[in-house]
Write a structure and sequence with these properties.
By secondary structure, the protein is mainly alpha-helical. The protein is about 60% helix and about 5% strand.
């Protein structure tokens, strides 16, 4: 029997996406707060406000990040070598991630992940040290102002999102501790609750996909409002839903051991899509065998076309008494 708990876990997140808000409580007073999810239009307004805060900060004499780095290098508090290493790591990671997207076999993916991880760690440390040296820049100031205004914009007292949690006057008199607590609540929602692939996991859950199949890929039919009025989380869910619906329609369903957890379902269809993009022989009746080194038997099953069979090289070697010559290997592949 399939364990539904991994999918049930995401029902609460799905509810948040559908209703367009997340609830939390302030530790200090225990009041419940309803945190509105932003639309792309609202994010656009924030970006304009950021540009204005950045302009005002530079006019008041705050250095930009670039100016701060140049100053630190001149004062021997930071090095150009470190800057060059950051750029080098970013470029290397970009190439490795592009290569990863082209791989099919999980063992190969894991091997590349092992190469990526220490580079990510080194880049994180360098960026952390860099920020520690830089201090407050015009960009940091502008981001802080936007984050603080987000509390005023997104915090509500009711689930209908009609009454702001703070009036303009109340907000102006908040202590720094109260502001910081609000920022922590919002940061937890963005950086933990909706972090990484959480929305992608919701999109492969049966309780979402069963409904999504009925809307014919039409976001208006699903949410009842134009796309521009959808929250960014709702847009992401629709996008993932469309992609996975296409994969589910065009590829084999996952076997039972892959269908027990959202991550395994995602892995299965990612593997199917990668395989579809890989070069392979399609003409039946001719030599159409392919060898994928490092692939497990389950991965080979996922890769095969209808009517093809899977040959496990290890099993074939055993049948030949533990050894196979070149002629036997070529014969196994129909050559």
């Amino acid at each position: 029997m399939i364990d539904e708990k991994p999918f049930t876990k995401y029902k609460d997140l799905y509810r948040d996406i559908i209703f367009g808000y997340t609830t939390d409580r302030f530790k200090s007073g225990g009041e419940r707060v309803y945190i509105k999810h932003l639309t792309d239009l609202e994010v656009g307004h924030s970006e304009r406000a950021y540009a204005e805060h950045l302009r005002l900060a530079t006019e008041e004499g705050l250095k930009t990040e670039k100016q701060s780095i140049e100053f630190l290098i001149e004062e021997n508090l930071w090095t150009q070598k470190n800057e060059d290493r950051i750029l080098e790591l970013q470029d290397r990671l970009s190439h490795l991630r592009d290569s990863r997207d082209k791989l099919i076999v999980k063992s190969q993916l894991n091997s590349l992940d092992k190469e990526i991880k220490p580079l990510e760690d080194e880049l994180y440390i360098l960026n952390y040290e860099r920020m520690d040296h830089i201090g407050i820049t015009a960009e940091i100031f502008a981001n802080k102002k936007i984050s603080e205004s987000t509390i005023r914009q997104c915090f509500f007292k009711d689930k209908d999102l009609t009454t702001h949690f703070y009036t303009e006057e109340e907000y102006d008199y908040l202590s720094q501790e109260e502001v910081n607590e609000g920022l922590e609540i919002y940061g937890n929602m963005m950086g933990k609750r909706f972090a990484g692939d959480e929305i992608k996991r919701v999109s492969v859950c049966p309780f979402f996909m069963n409904v999504y199949y009925l809307c014919n890929d039409n976001a208006y039919h699903f949410f009842g409002k134009p796309v521009l009025h959808l929250t960014n989380f709702q847009v992401a869910l629709m996008s993932y839903g469309k992609n996975f619906k296409a994969s589910m329609s065009n590829h084999k369903p996952p076997p039972e051991d892959y269908s027990r957890h959202p991550d395994k379902v995602i892995e299965w269809y990612d593997m199917q899509q990668r395989t579809a993009m890989a070069t392979r022989h399609e003409q039946k009746g001719e030599a159409s065998g392919q060898t994928v080194f490092g692939a497990s038997k389950q991965e080979l099953e996922a890769m095969k076309n209808e009517g093809e069979s899977v040959l496990d090289l290890k099993d074939e070697v055993k049948k030949q008494g533990g050894e196979m010559n070149l002629e036997q290997i070529l014969k196994m592949h129909g050559l």
